[in-house]
Amino acid sequence: MNHIKLYKPHLNQLPVHNACNDNTTFFITLNAGRQSGKTALAQQQAIYWAGSLKNKTVYWVSPTQGQTSKVYKQILEMIVGTPLIKSHKGSMGDTEIVFNNNSIIKFRSSAQEDSLRGETIEYLIIDEAAFVKESVFQEILLPMLNVRGKKCLIISTPKGKNWFFYQYQRGMKANEKIYKSFKFTSLDNPYSNRAIIKIAEENLPSVLFSQEYLGEFVDNAAIFENVNELANINIVNKPIPGAIYFIGVDIALKDDYTVVNVLDKDSNVVWYERYNQITSPQLKENLMKCFALWKPKKILIEENNQGLPIIHDLKIIHKVPNIEGFKTTSTSKQEIINNLINAFASKKIRVPNDADYKSELEVFSMTISPTGTPKFSAPAPFHDDIVMSLAIAWECSNKFKYNGTYNFH
User: What is the mean pLDDT of residues 281-301?
Assistant: First the structure.
């Protein structure tokens, strides 16, 4: 018999493993701060289940394909070359590690909903569960456990009070015997970098620090304040004659969206549109139609990567006037996002009453990098293209509102 030595859990991880391996608990929910050891715990548990039990399926689900692939590679590095492994493959949508005892760990993204259906499994691990849709959990993942299910391990850092919050609450009740919930913070990890956590505490809004590092369920840890109040604009399909407009464009050609935001001189987003999975010629045609319709005083387009050749063609080949490039760096992004944060805090801007628009604003977050630098982005699997386009449009409006006039031909 072959023996593989797994990691030594810290004091907060050990009770979670005990619940994963007892005979009574079915749902184990772990609420934990960033870099607290929750993913390492789940990875080790997956290896234990698959390596010590014959003919079992362990199903690992993460919000995005990128996260899924990362976990697969990390687990594979731990056990590759050991007597445990029969085979492995990392192809998208069919990522798995097969063990010599005929057990298997399958890795899937919750974003690929249709590909999840139809499996029958014994063990389920949901990583970053707060970012997985409740409908995926209830309608697709749980039914997989109906026939042979043994354990469901759900781990995440909080994201408001969604289904993960209520799942955690069930395990905190003494009368819920098949549910157990656990919590530890970033500070509970004996290997955490206390200096970085201190920097985060000093730089992040208190509610955001409480959520990301202390594992607290807060009602509103959003970067942008007053979103529901300020999202009251009904977008229009054509400009008002004589009105002045400014346009901000965030460029993307593949999985993300190209987003166009149009602001009037009173800082109202009167129109926005986004394009996905289109070719460069199609994108340029759409942009030219938009610019010709709104005749903006100024157009600010992100010039990074795909943006540069598009700006060049619009200006040089298609003779579109009033275009200027915006180069996104860590410094310039932080500056325009901070300006947009201030606009919402001081209620200087109004945006469309649109579900996608509000959703991106509400989930947009700030974290602290290992060097102590604030980093703005949307957490996976959400997008932030609307937010970036809006920040560029707000920059365009503030920079050029009082400059000389421009004529759109």
Answer: 94
Cα–Cα separations (whole angstroms), residue 152 to 19, 171, 181:
11, 12, 12
Which region, left, alpha or beta, applies to residue 24 given φ > 0 means left and ψ of -120 to 50 means alpha?
Answer: alpha
Q: What is residue 37's three-state secondary structure? A: coil
Are residues 287 and 309 in contact, defined by beta-carbon separation less than 8 angstroms? no
Which residues have CB under 8 Å from 268's CB, separation 6+?
A: 233, 349, 350
Non-local CB neighbours of 56 within 8 Å, separated by 6+ positions: 49, 50, 103, 104, 122, 123, 150
Query: Nearest to residue 399, comparing CAs of 260, 307, 306, 297?
Result: 297
Structure-token pair, residue 409? 């031909």
Q: Give the pLDDT confidence of 3-52 residue by residue, as tens digits.
A: 667 788 888 999 999 999 999 999 999 999 988 999 999 999 999 999 99
Q: What is the DSSP string of 306-333?
A: THHHHHHIIIIIS---SEEEE---HHHH
120-159 residue pLDDT tens:
999 999 999 998 999 999 999 999 999 999 999 999 999 8
- For residue 382, what pLDDT band results from cuts at 50, 70 and 90? confident
Find out whether the peptide bond into 241 is cis, omega within 30 degrees of 0.
no
Residue 294 Cα to chain centre, angstroms:
33
Q: Which residue has the tokens 């157990």?
A: 180
Q: Under a CB-based contact definition with an 8 Å cutoff, are residues 381 and 407 in contact?
A: no
Higher pLDDT, 317 or 4: 317
**Overall residue count recorded for the chain in this entry:** 409
Q: Which residue has the higher pLDDT, 188 or 379?
A: 188
Predicted confidence band at 408 (pLDDT cuts at 50, 70, 90)?
Answer: very low
> Could you tell me where the beta strands, DSSP code E, fall in 160-304?
179-184, 231-233, 245-250, 257-264, 269-276, 298-302
Q: What is the largest CA-CA distance in the chain?
A: 82
Q: Please state whether the predicted TM-score (pTM) of the whole model is above 0.70.
A: no
Provide, rounded to the nearest whole percent, the portion of the chain with pLDDT above 90. 62
The phi and psi torsions of 324 (rounded to 5 degrees) equal -135, 145
User: With 0-12 CB in 10 A as exposed, 13-18 as middle and 19+ as buried, what is 11?
Assistant: exposed
Instruction: Show the domains of the chain with their CATH numbers.
Output: 14-193 (3.40.50.300), 227-400 (3.30.420.240)
Q: How many CB atoms lie within 10 A of CB 70?
A: 15
Residue 260 CB burial class (10 angstroms; 0-12, 13-18, ≥19): buried
CA 174, 163, 129, 219 torsion-angle sign: negative
